[in-house]
Amino acid sequence: MNSPAASAPGTIDAIGGAGVPDARGLRVAVVSDAAPERNGVGAYYRDLVDHLRAVGARVELISPRFRAGRWYGGLGLPLPGDPTQKFVLPRVSLLTRRFDRLQPQVVVVPTPGPFGMLGMFLARRRGARLIIGFHTHFERLADLNQHGRLFGALAQGYLNACNRALFRASDLVLANSPEMVDIARSIGASHAGLMGTPIPRVFLQQPPTPMSPQIGRVLFAGRLAPEKNLDAVVDAARAHPDLRFLIAGDGPLRGWLEQQAADLPNLDYIGWVRRGRILPLIDSIDALVLPSTVESFGTIALEAMARARLVIVSAHCGILSWDRLEQGLFRIRDDETLADTLTRLQGLNRATLEHKAATARSAADDINARNLRHWLRILQHGDTRGIDEPAD
After folding, report:
1. How far is 55 from 269, CA to CA, in rounded Å?
2. How far apart are CA 242 and CA 221, in angstroms?
3. Helices marked H in the chain — which ranges?
4. pLDDT tens digits along 215-248
5. Nearest-5° Cα angle at 63, 58 to 175
6. Structural contact between residues 342 and 215, judged by C-beta atoms closer than 8 angstroms
7. For 269, which of 90, 102, 262, 297 is 20 to 30 Å away at the CA?
8. How far apart are CA 266 and CA 264, in angstroms?
9. DSSP letter at 3?
10. 187: Cα separation from own chain's centroid
11. What CA–CA distance (Å, rounded) separates 283 from 266?
């Protein structure tokens, strides 16, 4: 990586080699139903909060927590169809006290659940600006729901109604792909724009380990759910006995996946991986795969890019809509399976693969720095432009 340029007065050096405005004096509350330890939305805001604090902002992430197999932060109710997730009702008095201490100027709400709706109410009651993060297209996920049409319809109706209420109350809605921006506008967002995705600081601060001489270990990491297209990973393991496949995560398909791993000697299910173990896990593999049929972005793909790994994604992953990031990715072609794409990569020479990995890390570094500057423009100055829109 290039060494950082000298910062101008009034800026603080941020990862990415660009001076970022000093954010001291900024107070932000992020109110989310997504536990930082359990999914990509939770991880997004945990990483964003870390970056904002590093440049002087006072930020609180108010959300449920998942530690050592237990949920904290409110009353946990089982989520129908997925015993690995909880629907957590927040303690109103506790959340209100945290608002009283922080007195946020801006409230960020990324989820349409009980935490998010309470965050919206408190933001409006206290005159704080309200920013909505739109990460999940629930209607498309409902089409894949295998746990009853009635529940799927009720859940979809509830989530869409909450999203409409959040969008109406918001000052700005941000989504992480152009498709999701269009969906937000169709639901009712009057001000919608594009946001980037942050990367854990250590992923960029720590030099990546060198690539192996040839592809040997392949990783899928994420929620074990129908939209992740895990059949493609299992089929690729059958087609490539020369490769070892690792699957990390938890979700409603865990039992099925455990059976597949028992039947295939080169397929290992390693369970849920704590956030602090993700970096060494990525460094231990040669390629990360994300063959999803629905994927608004694909945070784990960006994290693997930051570690200079080969990353294979389906055409449905929103990360491909970012031109800078697409240059560092391999896309599963329309006439290919995931197994075919792996065969194609095995046919490329080492120099080509190393160049792709270096391009991936550079692109991830760039998008992370641009995203932080973009969020600061929004939080400090109320800028409503998307990340790719030009400055004045």
Report:
1. 39
2. 20
3. 40-54, 92-102, 114-126, 138-143, 149-169, 178-187, 201-205, 230-239, 254-263, 278-283, 299-306, 323-326, 338-346, 350-381
4. 999 999 999 999 999 999 999 999 999 999 999 9
5. 80
6. yes
7. 297
8. 6
9. P
10. 22
11. 19
Find where tokens 């964003």 sit. 48
State mean pLDDT over 342-352.
Answer: 97
**Residue 327 CB partners (closer than 8 Å, separation 6+):** 359, 363
Length of the chain: 392
Does residue 130 sit in helix, strand or coil?
Answer: strand
The domains of the chain, with CATH numbers, are 22-195 (3.40.50.2000), 204-365 (3.40.50.2000)
Cβ contact 370:389 at 8 Å: no
What's at 141, amino acid-wise?
Answer: L
- Residue 375 has what pLDDT? 95
* H or E stretch covering 219: strand 217-221
Among residues 237, 247, 246, which one has the least CA distance to residue 217? 246
pLDDT tens track for 51-74: 999 999 999 999 988 776 677 777
| Residues paired with residue 31 on neighbouring β-strands, in sequence order | 62
Q: Which of helix, strand or coil describes residue 271? A: strand
* Chain center to CA of 335: 28
Q: How far, in Å, are 109, 181, 221 from residue 166 at the CA level?
A: 8, 15, 30
Q: CA-CA distance, 337 to 331, in Å (whole number)?
A: 10
The tokens for 218 are 């392949």
Residue type, 364: A
Output phi, psi for 236, to 5 deg.
-65, -35
